[in-house]
Amino acid sequence: MDPEGDRGDPADVRAHGEPGKAAEERDGAGWRRRVRQAWHIREDEQPEGSFHMKTAELVMFLLLKYRTKQPISKAQMLEVITPEFQDDFPIILSQASRCLRLVLGLDVIEVDPSEHCYHLNIILGLTWDGMVSGQGGLPKTSLLGLVLGLIVLEDDCAPEEEVWEALRVMEVYDGQEHIIYGEPRDLLTNVWVQEGYLECRLVAGSDPVRYEFLWGPRAHVETSKFQVMDYAFQVSSSLVVSSLALCEQILR
Description:
By secondary structure, the chain is mainly alpha-helical. It has ten helices and six strands; from the N terminus they run ααβααββαβααββααα. It has helices at residues 28-39, 51-68, 74-81, 89-104, 141-153, 160-167, 184-194, 217-222, 225-236, 239-251; strands at 72-73, 106-112, 117-122, 158-159, 198-202, 211-215.
């Protein structure tokens, strides 16, 4: 699922490139219908007031706001989850925030408590989210944070086989394109190396060829070993399982 566009007010959700659906997307029913279609859920199979559905809708809304770089208000989020679930807003926001942090690498920050305004920031002080302007896609910083943490845990030099083993917790496997992260080997050996976050070093005498990974200069500038180790432990916990399932269901 790749929602694009602008949300000028809480009841106005549009999708770029779908002008015929503009009227449908201007109300909450249209927004909810898009979620059900993405999950292949029929109207009679999913109660209108599903707690899980409300969390998914909030994740989608927050991602839309991140893409368009717009501020987020509590009033807008309450509109998304509908009045009958407003008493559950703190729990729904907490679950949506956990999903965004552990799976996509975005932190939901309350920037103005008096006005209840929020903003999404990239985790760990990093400045790369993997999103290409004008091409959609999703943030991939969570995977980078996990790899940086693993390198620290492996005495600052992680063998390739240990990296792939650690990425299994995110259901990321060598040679398999991931619905969120894309081609993982390209990230490890090409993208993050070019971005300066990793150094990819050939293991001398290895047959078949193997690599080992170290922090690149950009990682040293932007974050710290303590931050990424703490994040890696969070991702390795059971908390990531439900969050990953939620995000993947939204996208399918």
